[in-house]
Amino acid sequence: MIDVRPPLLEEMPAYYRALPYATGLPQWEPEDAAWHGGLGPWPPQRAPATAERLAAMAAADSEDGNFHPMAAFVDGACAGASAMLSFEIRVPGWRTVGMGGVTATGVIATYRRRGLLRRMMQAMFDAALERGEPLAGLSASEGGIYGRYGFSPATYLVRWELARHEAALKPAAPDAGSLELVDAAAARQVWPVVHAAVRARRVGELTPQPGRWDRLTDEADGANGPLRYLVHRDEHGVADGIADFRLPWSADAATAGTLVVEALEAANPAAYRALWSLLVDFDLTKTVVAAPRPRDEPLRWMLADPRAMRITRQTESLWIRLLDLPAALSARSYDVPGELTFTVEGDRMCPANNGTWRLQADGSSATCIPADGAKTELRVSVQALGSLYLGGMSAHHFAYAGDIAEYREGAVDRLARMFRTEPEPHNSFVF
Ligand SMILES: CC(=O)SCCNC(=O)CCNC(=O)[C@H](O)C(C)(C)COP(=O)(O)OP(=O)(O)OC[C@H]1O[C@@H](n2cnc3c(N)ncnc32)[C@H](O)[C@@H]1OP(=O)(O)O
């Protein structure tokens, strides 16, 4: 018998044992190796979490009102685990929308492909709708899993490299502010302030989980060395930018002298430029590696030679799924005013999304109301709407792929123009 429901506190250890990160099973892409590069190509295999560790995780998670676990029990045994974290995500028009972020998902190998994830996903969608969250989001371990549940990529992230001797910046006015290397305690104070300023004006950025920056430390991470923290302050001494970077040790000439930027945020162009000016020309280094970064990194256009920045890796980051289509589409704004009548079909997990809808947007506000019976201009899949929602993808591409069918000439172009946003949406962390 299959039972899908939130686990009880005493069931949490069994719940965690369904998760790869608790059982020590391999990860598809160990983040440090795949993204930052480093000495060891793969970090060492993690040991399964101890009973004490599982108990501590259960205690912490049960205190967290934004953590909504879901479990699948087969004949009483916990065989599958997943969870949603409640976030607020910034959408076009600088508003925020509630999003259930799917995280910590696993089905024990001997129980897989029996529909346990599908059932957990359905239960989590229903619970998110009850909490009033019109969106679900996630970052995917494998690209082939989540489209069937209505998710589709909405943001990208990249890793880039720059050779220091090619990284001359175009001339610019001198910085009126100042830079300072600080310790982890100071960085923990600055990060929330800078992130809040950035988040207010970045589509795709998420509210950080409580304690997000608590783990910042001055301790060395083996040969990768310690994280170092560079803060920018404006001319009044107010912190408006921060970067976390490492200078890993290497015996290999190919990777020696690499400066790895793991995070950098700035609330304005002057702070952004000042931070990068030092990091791309750091004494005794040869190469700068940065990840995860936005695809439309402005630094490229500050370089005298824009080709010097080489994107060495790109993947999709946040996948979006519309749970409540009219609430989601009327919560964002549309830079290009317009009107569209479109039809969604075949959404079995959120059937209220099906039907014909009329979206009307005047540049600052929008309405999305049922228009069943009206002449439709487009058929749009719920996946295409997920990708288009934050404004980073082109509707034309989804028309090529068959996710959008045009019944009135010019309707795809109108959809594309209405949904696009500038700059490209970005989320600086995954969950
Ligand atoms: C958001 C995150 O947390 S990402 C982390 C996801 N977790 C992992 O990658 C850990 C390892 N993988 C697993 O634990 C499991 O394979 C899961 C959780 C991904 C899938 O669990 P399952 O219970 O097997 O999924 P379920 O049986 O509901 O599958 C539904 C459908 O997805 C397909 N599917 C599931 N996983 C995969 C996959 N990795 N690749 C391709 N198809 C898949 C199934 O074949 C099935 O297809 P169908 O609807 O056409 O019949």
TrEMBL record:
UniProt binding sites for acetyl-CoA: R113, R114, G115, L116, L117, R118, S141, E142
Superkingdom assignment: Bacteria
Keywords from the UniProt entry: Acyltransferase, Transferase
All copies of domain Eis-like acetyltransferase, residue ranges: 210-314
Active site (record annotation): Y146, F431
Keyword Thylakoid set for record: no
Domain Enhanced intracellular survival protein: 325-426
PANTHER family found in the cross-reference section: N-ACETYLTRANSFERASE EIS
Complex and partners: Homohexamer; trimer of dimers.
Family: Belongs to the acetyltransferase Eis family.
Name of the protein described by the UniProt record: GNAT family N-acetyltransferase
